[in-house]
Structure formats: structure tokens, C-alpha cells
Amino acid sequence: MSRPILQLQNGANWTSIWSYSAQAASAPDARPGSTLPIPLITVPFLLENDIIAISAISPSAPSTWRFAGRIAKKISTGIVTGGLPDTTVSDRKALLLDRINLYRFTRLTDTYALEIEPPYYFKDIALNLWIYTGVDSDTTSEQLNRIEFAVDEIVR
Q1: CA nearest 69: which of 126, 130, 107, 131?
Q2: How far apart are the C-alpha atoms of 132 and 148, rounded to whole Å?
Q3: What is the pTM of this model?
């Protein structure tokens, strides 16, 4: 059985690539202190790495809150419906508050977009995104490399 070979614990294998913060806008003609939901947040570039980490904090959130929204991977399929060419992949994931969240997405395309949907009741959010740049292989590829090397040695 194939097992991944990763070095996630090595901080040198992570690169911070994006930070973002947003505040909810005041709701016009509403009760004092009412705000509009923070709009959907899209990382402004395409990602290639399947292993990412993202942290979310909300300074105004009570310490008992744990949920910080959802993240979704979006890919381009070439199918256009209603003028929108992007498709949301079915692996939408929960984003936890005040934690570093680790995700490994299934590779379907070379690049993908990432969207973050904060809860409607959040007044502010700060996000940090890292990509994993370390070794990403599995035991099957390691074994195949050894076999290929052995065959090359025999042929020589």
C-alpha cells in the first residue's frame, strides 16, 4: 500500500504566500452596530501546490467561537453555464478559527483558485496562507525508483 512521504514538521518546507484582512461594512439604515456580511474572499492568484495551510483569526470573535468559514477549491473545466467558467470542486472544507488548518487537495488540474467564505456574522477576519514546498512523494514512487535503478545497473 502506498503511503505519502512528507516533511510537514520542517518549517523550512513552508512558504507564506498571501495575507489578507477584511472588515464587515456598516449596514446602512439599520440598527447601530449592524454590519453587512464580509463578501466571499478569493485568493488573487492561481495555486499549484496541493498541500496548503491557512490560518484565520477574528479579533472581535468571542473566545468560544471555533468556526471561521469554508474554503473551496475552484477549477476551470471549460464548461460555461450562465457565463461562469469555473467549477467548485466537491471538497469544500471547514476553516477553523485561531488554528493553522492543513489541507491536501486532490490534484485534478495543474492550477486552481481558492475561495474563502467567512460566516455572515463575522465583523472581521485575518487570513494567512502557506504552501508546502518540501518533498512530496510516496512509498510506491520510492520503490519504483529503486527498481528502475536496479534494472539500469543490471543492463550496464
Answers
A1: 126
A2: 28
A3: 0.79
Spell out the SS3 assignment of the chain.
Answer: CCCEEECCCCHHHEEEEEEEEEECCECCCCCCCCECCCCCEECCCCECCCEEEEEEECCCCCCCCCEEEEEEEEEEEEEEECCEEEEECCCCEEEECCCEEEEECCCCCCCEEEEEECCCCCCEEEEEEEEECCCEEEHHHHHHHHHHHHHHHHHC
Whole-number Å distance between alpha carbons of 66 and 40: 19
Rounded percentage of the chain residues whose pLDDT exceeds 90: 57
Which amino acid makes up residue 51?
Answer: I
Domains of the chain: 12-155 (2.60.120)
Tell me which amino acid residue 98 is: D
- Give me 100's grid cell: 493553522
Task: Look up residue 94 and give its amino acid.
Answer: A
Cα distance between residue 132 and residue 95, in whole Å: 18
**pLDDT at res. 151:** 72
- Burial (CB count <10 Å: 0-12, 13-18, 19+), residue 71: buried
